[in-house]
């Protein structure tokens, strides 16, 4: 064993903290009793009025517009977000690598280029973008919160990092993750825990939890996370943000640090990278820019398909047909949603079906898939037996974080025949789920069934991102509402609807026997918990599209976002979503 883990972790935190300029340090940190710290940047006196305007009144799309036509300077925008990120770090512990000096220097170069040529460098010219710690950036660690990876700066960039730089983006910080990336609450032994800035008693999510907290604090308006079981969508859900998990092959993923041996992803779940943002149109802007950049030169597994070449929901409208046909998935059949989640789905279904937007709503019963997906996902993810991670941690004697210590065990690796059987089962689930999109598949319940011979198809499926509200720290329950769509490789996004209100505290779970242990734990998050803690937290929905239909997904989310706005506005103006 090399040097023990404690001094390594201490030095790493000291290195990170030393990169925050002294004039950006808060004079006093908020009292531990203060649960909501969202207003600390405005109260701090560190940001000028112009910096507050830049970080609060623009989304990424608006910033790019101003930067690309010379109305805004990148150095001003980047400096403002660096300062706000520094404040966010001090109250939520969301950062791992601080890249402020390099970012401001790059912003000046981009400004000089624009002043000299009158042209932006690319579609993301001068825009500050934050990154999850798994991305490799030359000269900086990708430690992913484990001590054996500390002080080993990357010698190459991840494929998406190179692409973002070529598009004119400015990368200025990396964000916290859970140890082993195998938890939905971001805590590790190197950097500690990331807190939800809206309520420090609730989780900020994981594994892209640092991104979620940073963007909620508006220390960033557009960040990149990764997702293998919900790691983009859960932080988006926990922080009332927009987040999109693409199918594998849509966004470059090569060159990540995930703690796995090379090639492991080919026999497990292939993670994907995608945006977390403050607006839905920012998710579309980023995905469009990436696809139009022809990233196949950086990652051989990315499809050679521009945004325009992808199937469009808007372009595919047929006369006499609804503008959008969505299926409402009320349960996964494994864990029954709690009363506030059931109420939210009822509200969403009613709002969509009665709107003037031409949306057809049908109920979709996929409960037979839930238990099968849980079993198969767990089988796929346990192929390695966690041996690689245990071997990595053993190098410095680093223990598992408390939450993982009771859940992650070293087990025997699965045999080749076991792997083959698990993958065969996964393929069967992929094939079976194709029928869910078709009316003839037998999964729909529609009030207006088709009378002709043609087979109608769903455009999107709407479901919860979790069977419970935003969970308390370390109490996230079932992952199946997100992980099943990783298993099936379907693009999926989270979008906020409204906040948890007094009305949502009403309702009790049924007296029937729980479906399983997971269902029992889920009920305890309602029956044996102070429900007032959920007040003001985000209530969100998940939107799912057929495989590799990212353009249709974000176009559909845009339509839904517009229709569901009144639910946000109808909560008495309390929502800050």
TrEMBL record:
Q: What is this protein called?
A: amidase
Tell me the keywords, alphabetical order: Hydrolase
Q: Which family does it belong to?
A: Belongs to the amidase family.
Highest taxon in the source lineage: Eukaryota
Q: Which Pfam families does its entry note?
A: Amidase
InterPro entries, alphabetically? Amidase_CS, Amidase_dom, AS_sf
- What does it catalyze? a monocarboxylic acid amide + H2O = a monocarboxylate + NH4(+)
Which GO MF terms does the UniProt record name?
A: amidase activity
Outline the extent of the Amidase domain.
Answer: 76-553
EC annotation from Swiss-Prot or TrEMBL: 3.5.1.4
Amino acids binding substrate: 181, 207, 228-231
Q: Which catalytic residues are annotated? A: 132, 207, 231
Any keyword Hydrolase? yes
| Keyword Protein transport attributed | no
């Amino acid at each position: 064993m090399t040097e023990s883990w404690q001094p390594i972790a201490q030095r790493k935190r000291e290195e990170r903290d030393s990169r925050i300029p002294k004039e950006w340090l808060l004079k006093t940190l908020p009292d531990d009793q203060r649960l909501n710290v969202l207003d600390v940047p405005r109260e701090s006196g560190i940001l000028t009025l112009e910096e507050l305007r830049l970080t609060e009144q623009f989304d990424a799309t608006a910033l790019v517009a101003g930067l690309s036509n010379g109305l805004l300077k990148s150095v001003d925008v980047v400096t403002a977000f660096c300062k706000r990120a520094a404040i966010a770090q001090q109250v939520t512990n969301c950062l791992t690598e601080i890249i402020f000096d390099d970012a401001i220097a790059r912003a000046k170069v981009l400004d000089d280029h624009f002043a000299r040529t009158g042209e932006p460098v690319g579609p993301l010219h001068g825009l500050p973008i934050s990154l999850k710690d798994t991305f490799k950036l030359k000269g900086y660690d990708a430690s992913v919160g484990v001590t054996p990876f500390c002080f080993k700066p990357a010698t190459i960039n991840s494929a998406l990092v190179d692409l973002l730089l070529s598009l004119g983006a400015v990368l200025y910080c990396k964000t916290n993750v859970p140890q082993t990336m195998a938890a939905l609450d971001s805590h590790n032994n190197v950097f500690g825990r990331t807190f939800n800035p809206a309520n420090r008693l609730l989780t900020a999510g994981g594994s892209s939890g640092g991104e979620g907290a940073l963007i909620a604090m508006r220390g960033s308006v557009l960040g990149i996370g990764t997702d293998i079981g919900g790691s983009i969508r859960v932080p988006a859900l926990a922080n009332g943000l927009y987040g999109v998990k693409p199918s594998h092959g849509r966004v470059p993923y090569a060159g990540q640090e995930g703690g796995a041996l090379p090639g492991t992803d080919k026999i497990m779940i292939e993670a994907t990278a995608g945006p977390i943002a403050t607006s839905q149109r920012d998710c579309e802007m980023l995905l469009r820019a990436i696809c139009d950049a022809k990233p196949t030169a950086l990652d051989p597994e990315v499809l050679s398909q521009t945004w325009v070449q992808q199937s469009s929901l808007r372009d595919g409208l047929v006369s006499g047909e609804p503008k959008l046909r969505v299926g409402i998935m009320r349960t996964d059949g494994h864990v029954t949603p709690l009363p506030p989640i059931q109420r939210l789905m009822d509200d969403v279904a009613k709002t969509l079906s009665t709107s003037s937007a031409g949306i057809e709503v049908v109920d979709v019963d996929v409960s037979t898939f839930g238990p099968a997906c849980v079993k198969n996902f767990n089988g796929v993810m346990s192929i390695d037996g966690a041996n690689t991670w245990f071997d990595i941690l053993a190098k410095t004697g680093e223990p598992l974080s408390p939450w993982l210590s009771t859940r992650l065990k070293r087990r025997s690796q699965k045999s080749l025949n076991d792997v083959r059987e698990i993958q065969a089962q996964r393929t069967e689930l992929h094939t079976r789920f194709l029928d869910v999109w078709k009316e003839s598949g037998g999964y729909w319940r529609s009030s207006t069934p088709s009378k002709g011979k043609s087979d109608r198809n769903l455009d999107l499926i709407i479901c919860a991102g979790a069977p419970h509200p935003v969970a308390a720290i370390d109490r996230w329950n079932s992952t199946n509402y997100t992980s099943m769509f990783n298993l099936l490789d379907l693009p999926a996004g989270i979008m906020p609807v409204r906040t948890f209100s007094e009305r949502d505290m009403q309702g009790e779970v049924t007296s029937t026997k729980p479906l399983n242990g997971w269902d029992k734990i889920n009920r305890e998050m309602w029956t044996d918990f102070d429900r007032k803690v959920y007040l003001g937290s985000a209530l969100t929905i998940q939107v799912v599209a057929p495989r590799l239909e990212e353009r249709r997904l974000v176009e559909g989310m845009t339509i839904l976002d517009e229709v569901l706005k009144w639910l946000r506005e109808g909560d008495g103006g309390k929502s800050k979503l």
